[in-house]
From TrEMBL:
<dbReference type="InterPro" id="IPR017861">
    <property type="entry name" value="KAE1/TsaD"/>
</dbReference>
<feature type="domain" description="Gcp-like">
    <location>
        <begin position="40"/>
        <end position="322"/>
    </location>
</feature>
<keyword id="KW-0408">Iron</keyword>
<feature type="binding site">
    <location>
        <position position="131"/>
    </location>
    <ligand>
        <name>Fe cation</name>
    </ligand>
</feature>
<dbReference type="InterPro" id="IPR000905">
    <property type="entry name" value="Gcp-like_dom"/>
</dbReference>
<feature type="binding site">
    <location>
        <begin position="150"/>
        <end position="154"/>
    </location>
    <ligand>
        <name>substrate</name>
    </ligand>
</feature>
<keyword id="KW-0479">Metal-binding</keyword>
<feature type="binding site">
    <location>
        <position position="196"/>
    </location>
    <ligand>
        <name>substrate</name>
    </ligand>
</feature>
<keyword id="KW-0012">Acyltransferase</keyword>
<comment type="similarity">
    <text>Belongs to the KAE1 / TsaD family.</text>
</comment>
<keyword id="KW-0963">Cytoplasm</keyword>
<dbReference type="InterPro" id="IPR022450">
    <property type="entry name" value="TsaD"/>
</dbReference>
<feature type="binding site">
    <location>
        <position position="183"/>
    </location>
    <ligand>
        <name>substrate</name>
    </ligand>
</feature>
<feature type="binding site">
    <location>
        <position position="316"/>
    </location>
    <ligand>
        <name>Fe cation</name>
    </ligand>
</feature>
<feature type="binding site">
    <location>
        <position position="288"/>
    </location>
    <ligand>
        <name>substrate</name>
    </ligand>
</feature>
<dbReference type="InterPro" id="IPR043129">
    <property type="entry name" value="ATPase_NBD"/>
</dbReference>
<keyword id="KW-0819">tRNA processing</keyword>
Length: 361
């Protein structure tokens, strides 16, 4: 999908803000540049990883306070990178959900206030729609219809995408998301925070076949996920092991292989069920090297193509929010001035592109 914004009346550059969890992301996307890949003018990101590492996970109140400190300086920095002033903006977008309610409110309040002061149209963006559309920022973007695998610390879902805004949920997690399973398993083995990337790095040193864990819910029909049982298997294996460094690496590899195999099997099923030949993989777990390689290899064998955003756009970022917001603003959508967020928000409930939105609350 390579939308030509030039065919529509431009709203001018769109400021996008992401504050759903522990990253403060800001970006400016100009829909007048003709396509999604060329429209990204600037983007900045501040991660709170070091602060939350002392607690072994995200502390919501601390996350909200840090967004308050970092957001406006990042907005100024991003505008400077793009060579723009606030008066040059044509619209604003922010993550309205899902996410941590306090963190969401920081971004929503700042952006809605800016919109009110400058009399700009504003749009609240669904965080997962942002992830889903992130591959459009690449030079060779996917075109619908396609299947999207959205995998992160909070979500593991398969979505059928008929068009932007036309989403059908095919499968969801029944318990832990894949990224959450990575993080909890890493914490079990005393790996540093954030656990997911640390476990994936350790897995590179693991010996294949030393341990093997189940591929959850692949022995039955359906596209839902469940990773809680897999965590239990890892726990039992870890408790019964000698807990040496090599054993830790071996268990990490076996765990990662189980997650990647499970995701790959479900993706192939979803493509077969929908008839789509294009797969989009987005979200933090989409940065996993083994997952990328395995899906690319499966696509080469079976005739489908897997699209991934660049690594910096797999995790939370402002660029995906600016793009998603620009698409909906260009389609004529708008919201009331109310500052409203949705910590829980069903992606499939989003209106098709171009349907005006009265509000997101």
């Amino acid at each position: 999908m390579n939308p030509s914004f030039a065919k529509q009346a431009s709203t001018g550059p769109v400021l996008g803000v992401e504050t759903s969890c522990d990253e403060t992301g800001v970006a400016i996307f100009d829909p007048a540049r003709g396509d999604a890949a060329g429209g990204l003018l600037a983007h900045t990101l501040y991660s709170q990883i070091r602060m939350h590492a002392d607690y072994g996970g995200v502390v919501p109140e601390l996350a909200s306070r840090d967004h308050v400190r970092k957001l406006l300086p990042l907005v100024r920095e991003t505008l400077a990178q793009a060579g723009l002033r606030v008066a040059d903006l044509g619209g604003v977008a922010y993550t309205a959900g899902p996410g941590l309610v306090g963190a969401l409110l920081v971004g929503a309040t700042a952006v809605r206030s800016l919109a009110w002061a400058l009399e700009l149209p504003a749009i609240g963006v669904h965080h997962m729609e942002g992830h889903l559309l992130a591959p459009l920022l690449e030079p060779d973007p996917p075109e619908p219809p396609f299947v999207a695998l959205l995998v992160s610390g909070g979500h593991s879902m398969l979505i059928e995408v008929a068009a932007i805004g036309r989403y059908t949920l095919l499968g969801d997690t029944l318990d832990d998301a894949a990224g959450e399973a990575f993080d909890k398993t890493a914490k079990l083995m005393d790996l540093p925070y954030p656990g997911g990337p640390a476990l994936a790095k350790l897995a590179e040193q693991g010996r294949p076949g030393t341990f093997r864990f189940a591929r959850p819910m692949t022995d039955r029909p359906g596209l839902d996920f469940s990773f809680s049982g897999l965590k239990t298997q890892v726990l039992l294996a870890w408790q019964a092991s000698d807990r040496s460094n090599q054993t830790k690496a071996d268990i990490a590899r076996a765990f990662e292989e189980a997650i990647v195999d499970t995701l790959t099997i479900k993706c192939r099923r979803a493509l077969a069920a929908t008839g789509a030949r294009t797969l989009v993989v987005a979200g933090g777990v989409g940065a996993n090297r083994r997952l990328r390689a395995q899906l690319a290899e499966a696509g080469a064998r079976e005739g489908f193509r897997a699209h991934f955003p660049r690594l910096e756009f797999c995790t939370d970022n402002g660029a995906m929010i600016a793009l998603a917001g620009a698409l909906r603003l260009q389609a004529g959508e708008h919201e009331t001035p109310a500052i409203l967020v949705r910590p829980r928000w069903d992606l499939a409930s989003l209106p098709p592109l171009g349907v005006p939105i009265a509000g997101v609350g």
